[in-house]
Amino acid sequence: MELGIPTICSLRWAVNRIHQMLLHRRLIPELTFGNGETLLVRSQLPSHLTGRQATEFDVDGEIRVVEITRAGRSLLSAQGVLAEPGDLVTFSVAATAPGRLSGFLDKELGTCRS
Domain 28-109 in CATH: superfamily? Predict the structure, then answer.
């Protein structure tokens, strides 16, 4: 019976968390939404991505830059905002896409994971 009370399936949540931690150690979700379909992930931006517009990191339906923390201040991603060295970027990521984000972040290092 539906009572309008949000519930958590702890087994499903735990399995999803362990799966993410094993496959994508650098991209540990800080928060999940729904039944784990969307993840909020923060990552230091690698140097090979500095100077690019933050909106270039978006992939429709899979990855979106939500926020950038720069020198302790938060700013929202917008057209024309360029990534700078030391940026800490918050991504909203589909649960099926952490590997794609990880590969994108690691591209210059030649450590892409499939």
Answer: Regulator of K+ conductance, C-terminal domain (3.30.70.1450)
